[in-house]
Amino acid sequence: LLFSFSSVHHAAILPRIKQAFLVLDHCGIYLLIAGTYTPFSLLMPVGQRWILLAIIWGLALAGIVVQLVAFLIGRGDSYERFAYFFYLAIAWIPILWAGEYVLKSLPPMGLDLLVAGGVAYSIGVIFYVWKRMPYAHAIWHLFVVGGSVFHFFSIFYYVVPDVL
Asked: 88 with 133, same domain?
């Protein structure tokens, strides 16, 4: 979904369509972050699992609402600067809280893939905000795809077999 919104945004010619899909793309980032954490949360004890899921999905939904409101009132550009930090905070805060369960539950390769994905996204943000560097946005997208691939394989090979 996220990659589809991003593709349509980049392919669109009409400014209004381009802007609408940019907003959907940014909303999709929140869904991607929360959706990626959901399977990892299943490695936690049941009570704490639900707390983590409530926090992550609550923050993601708050981010989506603020993103949509900022767009509707014409303040999307101002919100975008804040969003970079909000994405990173939502992505890294649970690691600080639930990291011990993930460390205990994932074998080293699963953990390496998880960390590599987080590092790829985090480094990619540098290129996303570096507007004056040629091809920085394309480089950003390469880091995003890389981060997604790392997380996919961590979940597929090391979380799904333990949860099922």
From this structure: no
3-state SS class at 9: helix
- Full-model pTM: 0.87
Q: Which of 74, 158, 84, 155 is nearest to 124 (CA)?
A: 84
CB atoms within 10 A of CB 126: 13
Q: Which of 85, 105, 125 is the last residue of a domain?
A: 105
Q: Provide φ and ψ at 57, rounded to 5°.
A: -70, -35
* The one-letter amino acid at 4: S
How does pLDDT run across 117-157, given as a tens digit for each residue? Answer: 989 998 998 998 888 999 999 999 999 999 999 999 999 99
Measure the CA–CA gap between 88 and 76, rounded to whole angstroms. 18
